[in-house]
Structures are given as C-alpha cells and as structure tokens.
Batch of 4 targets.
Target 1
Amino acid sequence: MKLFSCRPRTLWIALLYVALVHAVLCLAIAKTNFLPLARKTLGLDPPEERSVSQYQAMLGWFVRDRQVPENAVVLLGDSLMQDLDSTHLGREVHSFTLGGTTVLVLLEAMPGLGCLEHAKVAVLGVGANDLKYRSLAQILADYSLLLNALPPELDVVVVPVLPVDERAPNVAARPYLSNRRIGELDHLLSARALARPRTRRVDVRELLAPDGSLRSDLHSGDGWHLSDEGDVLLGRAIARELDALSR
C-alpha cells in the first residue's frame, strides 16, 4: 500500500505553499531586528553603545594622552563636552570626548588615560546616553566606579546631566529622554560626585527655562544638543568653576 497517494497537482501546490511560507518568514526576519537581537543575546555582537568607530576614536585618545602636559585641564565625556568651544573656557584644554559616550564606555577607557595622574583638573560631563541602556541604579553604580578610578588628588568639575526640550519632535521619539528621569539621574549622580573630595558642580541654571527644561533657544533643534549660544553659556559656567579652583 502506498504511504502517500495524491495527485501531482496537489503535491506541487503543497510544495509551493511550504516554499511561500518559508519565503515570508525569511523576509520577516530580514526586515526586523530579530537577527541583531539574537546575535546580541548570544554574545556574538557587542552592546549597541560600543562601536568600531568608537574604539577607533579611543585609540586616538591613547595616542594624544602622551602629549598632555602636567597640570592640564582635561575634558571627559559625551557630545555635550565634545561640542564645547574650548576658547570659552578661558584656557587651553585637552579633550577626550566623543558623541554617544556612556559612563560605562568612559570607565572602560580610563586605564588608557595616564594624563589624569598629572592633570590639574578634569571636567566631567557624561550620563545622558546611559539612559538608553540601563536603569538609574546601574548608571549610578558605574558612575561611582568612574569617580573611584580618578586620582584622589585630581580636582574634578562635574557638568550636570542637562534636561531636554520635550516639545522637540526628536525628544518625543525617545522616551528615555524624559525630564523626569533625567532629573532623577542628575540628582543621584550629583550627590555622588559632591561626596567626593575636591569636586565641584557647574551651575547650569542659566540654560534652563522656568519649568526646568532646556531653553528652546539654546538647543540646535533636536531638543538636547546645544546651539552655539548654549555652548557659550555652558562654557562660561564651566570657566567660572575653573576660575574658582585657581584662586
């Protein structure tokens, strides 16, 4: 007795159906983030906050690190610090900053920044990007490790995690950039930073609207990156803290 008895036409229809199902499934996988997520889950891809271009930029940091003189002012942080025009700080600075940098990534780069052992001041501005990847408690734990990794005799000027303009469409598309969560994070990080000796916090009230959000005239249009005028005001606020340390 035959195990299967069907007409050739029925068999071809069944085969076409199976092929179509597999084609749709392959297309669905290719058009979604299933494969990247699977690779990350299996540990085949690095976390999204790290990238090849970021590592390449940090290799450049380690080369420039050797050229930093003693008693220098060193900038550490993300795009907020990277975009600063150092002329507004009133002194020569050496920048180890990069857009997209998180507390964790900066912590991983610290062993390659030997200049911090003989620098005069470090200006630290980081934390906003971490909101995309971790809880407040996890960010605070990484930030504590970062502060502990700094030489104890180094003066540190901390730039707060700035609020955003929530009315900007780009901010609305990023729920992790809510001012409520940013405020909670800044409170935690600032308290931890000021518990460290030889640490000052920049006063950024001049950049804020009455409701505590970032002034709409001081960002570049996306709701969080500063405009030229915003950079000037932040630079001057940092310079005041550096001047206070020089007295």
Target 2
Amino acid sequence: MKKKRFWIFLILIGVGILCWLISWIPVTEHISLDLLATEDKNVRIALITDLHSCWYGSGQKDLLARVEKEQPDIVLLGGDIFDDVRKDDLSKVAVAALAEKYPSYYVSGNHEWWSGRMDEMKAWLESAGVCVLAGECETITCNGCIIDICGIDDPTDIGISRWREQMEQAYGQTDESHLRLLLTHRPEMVEEYAKYDYDLIMAGHAHGGQFWIPFLRKGVFAPDQGLMATYVNGLYELPNGSILEVSRGLARERVPAPRFFNPPEVVVIDIH
C-alpha cells in the first residue's frame, strides 16, 4: 500500500510539473469583433500586457517574431511592461523594436509606479516613439477607420480621484462616430468603465488568475479581485454593452506562483 501511494504521489508531481511547463509556453490568442459599421474595413490590434521585463529569447526574438507574424496595425502596451524589481533592459529591447515597426501606445501599471521611476520610464518610452497616454485620447485613421485610442494611468500612485478625472478627460475627447477604444491596466473597475460608451476596453493586471479554472471561467486569485476572480481572461460584456478584453499577460519568471492552464499570451484583436 505504501509503495502504491508513493507511485501515485510521483505521478501527481509529474503531472503538476508537466502542466506548469506547458503553461510556460506563450500563445497567440486571436479574437474577432464586429464593431465597425462597414464590412470593408478591418483593424488588427496586438495587445501586450504585463511583460514585467521577462525573457523571450535572445533579443526578445520569440516575442517579436510572434507579433511580426500577425502584422498588426497598432500595438497597445497595457501596463507593467517594466517591473519594480527586474531591470528594464529586456523590456526596452522589445518595446524599441515594436515602436520602430508599429504605431505603439502605452498606459502605466502598478509595478511601474512601485518602482519609483515612472517619470523616467515614460520619458524613455516617448523617446522610443511610443505614445504615452495618461488621460488623453489620440485620434488616428487606420485602414479607412477613424479610431479614438484613449488611455489612463494605473491608480496606484495618482489615486482614484485623479484616475476618475483621467477617465472623464479622455472620454471627453472622443467622438461617437469614431471607434472608441480604452486602454487601461486594471480590469476589475467594471462599474466605472460601464459609465462610458466605449466599444472596446483592454486591460491586463490579473495574470489570468494565476491558476485558470476552465469550466468556471475564473482565476484562483488575482490582484485587487482576490479569490475566485472573475475578470482575468478573455472577453466580458459590460452592463452598458461595452466589451472588455482581459489579457493574461506575458509574465513568466516574475510571478508569485507558477501558472497552471494559463499560458502567457499576446492577444491579437481583429475589429471588423
């Protein structure tokens, strides 16, 4: 009996290690949304969040090749691209290469504020050609489609009052005839987001709930959501009809616990 239990224990350990290794391998998640009035227009977005200065091959080649394969029109950087503990080098390599090829937009995350170097990070991003959004809206034309790209800071340092001011300020610059997008770090603020008529809201922060529970569509734990977190992975429709997309992010070696059933991801969103 003891020998049998020992082998069962070893098998369970082996299965756990295998699940962890599989969950280390990044994926590209494809999403298609019908948000445009005309059928002949298409916009492709690559959403990258929570890189946390993690390693994706020499020169970040694995991450860059994954994005290049998809040929996005726009790259959105949804916060915690840098980290408060790890050095900036790996993130800078990835971001510089992306910004050289694609129009790129960034909002801050909580770890970047925790670093105490947010101003330095934003200055570097702007020097690399990234548009840093902090309560602003950038209106662009892409493939014949007029898009309002709004972005807000993470509230970690600026506080909720200023965060709400940024929300109001950014939305006030939009036009209802345009495709209206909001880039934010935090997904759990759904009651606030539902006050505004955005077509699509994109966030990260939750790291997929660390352990993703497929049939329940919940994460075991996510920051600022606690246990059995809801807004951690994929698409959610808000009460006002806005769509919220939550990326699982790209953090690997910089996570509090191994990922399970929750591989890191680049999200590619095709808007028709």
Target 3
Amino acid sequence: MSKLARGPWRRILLIGCVLAWSGPLLADGSGSVGQAQPYYLGQGLYFPQQAVRVGGYADVQFHGLDNHRNALAIEDLSLFLTKDFGARWKMFSEVELGDAVTVTDHHVTTRNANVDLERLYAEYRVSNGITLRVGKFLTPVGQWNLIHADPLVWSVSRPLTTTAAFARHSTGAMLYGTVSLQNHDLDYWLFADDSQAIGFARSHDLAYGAYGATNSLKNDFSHAVGGQFLYHMMDDRLSVGASAARYTLRDPLQQYRLIGIDFAWTGRHVEFSGEALQRTADNPTLPDEVGGFVQAVVPLPRKLYVVGRYERYRSSTQQGALSIRSIGLNYRPVRGLFLKLERLDGSRNAALDPSGWFVSAGVIF
C-alpha cells in the first residue's frame, strides 16, 4: 500500500480534498448537508442537489499463516467520493486507512497504520465511446486489478499474477470507453504514466504484497505506456481480454515489456476466470517473470459459494516455479455484506505467498 507523500504535497492534497468536497455538500448555503436520496447498502449515499455520491468499504481480516504469528487486523477503511460537474465532467477520490489496528497474540498495535491515496482523478466524457481520465488510477492490466477491492473479489488472498510484475497504480492520463465490434461490446483502456514527474501521487506497490511475504521489492512506475482490450460475447457471459505495456520501474531502475491475457465465463452452475502474463526485461541477464492462474466459483444454496484457484508462477527473484492452491467459501447474506474463509497451500511459495488460513469479513457501503 502507498503512503501519502510527506511534506508540503501532503498538506496540499488534504486541503484540496477538503475544499473540493465540503464546498459542494454545503452549497445550499444553510451550512448543512443537502437532502440525500434513499440509501441502499452497497450503492453509496447520493446527494442529488450537489451531484455528490459518498461510499466506501471496510473489512477485518484474520491471517493464520504456517510458521507465523496469527494476526487480526482492521485491514481497510476506504472512503469513495464522486462529484459530477454537469453531464461531462467528474471527479473521484479514494482515500484508505490501512492496517488501522493489528492484534497479534496478546499484542495490539497501530504501528502499521497508513493513509493511502488510492485514487484521485478527474474525468471528461468526450463522447459516448471516449472518456479522458487524468490523475492517479488503477493500472489497466488484467481484470482483477480493476476490481481489486476486497468486497468485490471472491477470495481473501490475491494471485501473484495480478500484483508481482507491474505497478497496481498509475499516475498520468488514460483514454477509455466502449465501442461496438461485430454486434458485441469492446472495452478499451489506453494509458500513459509519468509518476517520476508527478510526485504527489507516488505509490509504493509491493511486488509481492501477500501477508507474511519476506520479499520487499517495490513495483513503482517511473514511466509507462500501455493498454488493455476486453471483448464481450455470449450476452456478456464470456469476456476475453489482452494487455500490453512498456514501462520503467524506479527501484531497481529497469525497463520492461509486459503482455497478458485474461478471460471470465459465467455459466448456470459455475464461473471460470483466469489471467496469465509474461514480463521481459530489456537487460537480457534478468530472468522473465511468468505466471498465470485459473479460478472457479460454484454457487451453493443460501447465498454460499465455493471458490477454488490454482496458480503457477515463476518469479525473477528465485529459481524455479512455485505453485499455489486455494480453496475457500464466500458467504454473501445480503447485498454489500460478505464473509470469506480460505485455505492456501503450495510448493516453493513460503517467501512470496505463504500458506495458511485466511478469514475476511466486511461491508461495502
């Protein structure tokens, strides 16, 4: 997770966020928040007079890793703010308090707490099929990274394929939209990152960010260009995507090329999804980063789901490929509430994604 930059940039960001959001909410001149529409869990609270939507999510996680101390943490407290300016302009921000409180055995600490500016951008809708986004946003590589928030994914753990080879956040500009191709929808994202010049939104995305991982490499873009295409078929039951990017990471300073593919298919009794990628360094002495996973979700009665995943990954930091197997349950009693239980095992995975038990409970509001 990425800590807000210290010093003047931090103060400017905080002041700017307060002015940007408090002004519209109090725009009726009475000093009170305008009338909100009826609230439904998971959809946010909308103030139509100010065209502002407030939402977010929170989750608590338990990690019972093999050969590690058990840990219980308030993992995420995330706030979404969306403001519309007419029919074409929009601003969005996501501010997150991570690891607010962590309990290990008989020890309670807030030492790992951090405030993250996950996303902050402005958008302009050029036409029905073209939108321009400027600011800090999620890197469009694969399907998982664009829906990475804990309430929106099936498992507690995150596949290495979706985090190890590229920065999860980009700072710069992006064009995206949907066009029609042979009577089917084609989604596209084209982005350019210049994180080196736009220092206020620098991230610190861990290459191997699983809880208990001992590798501390950071995936921070210096510069990047790339894009993703996602084609929808079979009445949107099947989507097939491809990603490509060329980028420079800051530390260690190195240039890379990345290609990836992904898919998602929803049937009557099962859902399958998967991603695969390969990262190649311009320096021929550095090994490639290669991996992929396949995940299946089977619905059971009473809003319970069985989730299974298998991943194979070869990291540039260790010899040989590792394999990871995950099996779990996902319970969604009502819209916006979730409870997850997961067991993760593997071979050669102790350093990058340790085996253990995971539990997550939370709400999206």
Target 4
Amino acid sequence: MLDKVEISKKLIDFESRFGRSGKIDVCFAPGRVNLIGEHTDYNGGLVLPFAIQQGTYMLVRPSVLPPARLYSDQLGLEARIMTPDVTKKNDWADYVRGVYLYAGETVCGEIPPFDAMYFGDLPLDSGLSSSASLEMATVLGLGSLGCRLSKEEAVKVCRRAENDFVGVACGVMDQFAVAFARERNVILLDCDTLEYRQIPYNLKDTVLVVGHTGVRRSLTDSEYNERRRECAEALSLLSARVGPRKNLSRLTIKEFEEARWSIPDTLALRAQHVIYENVRVEEAARCLETGDPETLGYLLNRSHESLRDLFEVSSFELDTLQEISAAQPGVWGCRMTGAGFGGCVISLIKKDALERYLGRVPGLYWQSTHCDAGFVVTTPGEGAMEVEVL
C-alpha cells in the first residue's frame, strides 16, 4: 500500500481537479496473485489466490448534479457516467459503469452523483487483477454514497460488471479474492460452490516474487473467451461418455483418461489441463499446510508446463522469464500467473537466494527479450478496505 503522505498528495490533486466542497473518502482494493489453479475458476474448480499489497485507490465525494465525473490518474484520462441510461463506452471506466449500474439495479436503487479519482501502484493488464481491484474499490466508494454492499453482494455485482457489461467471461476468483483475502493467508476456493477456507502461509524462509514480463495483455482482445468455449465443448462431449457433469473440474483423472480419445485432440488437451490442474491445487494446499516448499515448487513448474503446452495461453516472454527463473539457485518453482497472453510469473524462492535472483534475472531476461521486467517481493495481504488518512 502507498503511505499516507502519498495519499495526502492525491487528495490535494483531487481538490485541484474537482474543487473543495466536502469530505473525501478513501477506499483501497488490492490486486491478487493466484498461486496455482489457472483457468479452473470458470470450469467450476479449485483455485489458491491471495491478495498482494499493491492495488487501486478510489477517492470519492458526493456531488450536486450529474453526471458522475471520473478520473484515472494512472492513465491521465477522464470519463463520465451518464444517467439514467448507463451505456458502455469501451474505455477504462466501463468497469466502474458496470459496478454502478448493477449495484443500483440489484441492491441500492438510485445512487447519487459523485466525483472520483483512481490511482494506485498496481500494473495494468498484468495478470494481477487490476480490473477486479478497480471494481472492488468502486464498490467501497459507492458505500460512502449510501450504497453499501456485503462482500457476497460485492462479488456478484463486480463479476456481473465484468461478464455482462465489459464482456470478459471471467470466473469468480478475482473478485472473491480481492474481497475476502486476509493478511498472511491464501484462500482455497471452490469456484462452483464458493465454499472456501483460509490457509495460513507458513512456508518458512521463503518469499514470493512476482515478475512482470513488461508485456501487457487484454482479455477482451485475446483468445480467453475461445478457451472458455473449448472447455464448454469438451465438457459436453465428455459428459456424453462418462455421464452428466456440471463442470469440467468435476471429472476425475480416471474418467477423463478413459474418455479422452473420444473427443478432438485440441479439446482433450484443454480438458487435460483443467482436470490435472484441479488436482495440483489440492496438493498445493497441503504443501502450504505442511510447510513443504519443495513439492509446491514442483507443482508450480508442472502448472506452467501445462498452461504452455496443453492450454496454450503462455507467450515467449512468459516462458522466457519462467525458464530463467527456474534455473536460478534457490528457486523452488515458478509459473505464469493470470489468464496468460502476457502478464506475470510468480516464483517461490529461498530468502537467502533473493538478492542474487534480483541481481541476475532482470539482465538475463532483457538479453533474451529486450523487454524490461519489473519485480515485486510480496506476501499475502488484506482484502479491500476503507482507508483512514489523518
């Protein structure tokens, strides 16, 4: 999180832009990293996410007349929410408009006009759930306008904003993790039932390093929705052989292996990743509980190979950063995290190897890709919250 001095400077910027006319509320929602369990969320499977310290801030204050005025400090762009007809504009503020629309429709009714400024230290389009962070910060900001949602309501509204308004067919993991995360805990979440439990992060003498490849990605412009379609088709064909299943993750490995030859090769590869990845999540949760970084690192490496070779959502930059990281002394394991097509790699590293890793990997990566990677050392952090600034 940013310190209070930095936030106070943003309050001055807010008043310079929107005027001085009342109390400004400050809300924060973190980004998230998924330790393991990629593309299992929309297949009704298990995931193991946690919140990071970096995230999105929203400064918000009620205004007198519509429209709601928005400003992204990171992008340097203004936007509006025109009422009563809230329509998609295909810009950054669609995530905000979607939350505003569905929070009003499902919970709050009419929401008063407001001024809002967004800023933060979370890289955009990086696979760290910048969109869910933006959405959840907006939910908290609407609370200061009299539209207060429970965490469960917030997750539903934010997911609907992303699915139905923006048009990204994501699962529920990102919004859930941003809302329910606890400091020093990782969430084991069943994305079908939404049953979850907090697992303490008890890996001694280890750190998590998130490396951004320097390549941004956009799910609306990628093959993400195509992968969802392929998974749905695989489920339909496999269910005809093994019996009805609600989700692809509900097939056992034995059932899949006996039926895989009855479906097209590409669909079999997609299903194989999802079904085996779901098992890896269960095993990874046990590693956290027993304090076993070696086995967890092995699972991270296998997850990346599966995403690269079976699900085909990696990229040259992701593979390069993963391979360079995996070859470093003291690295237990690493994999791409997020939906793919660019973004980040997460590495599990021995504490005493961290300095050497950070000293070597950026240069080796640049030599191979001519891209500048950014690295963040992180631990599981707290979920979305209101911030007091004295």
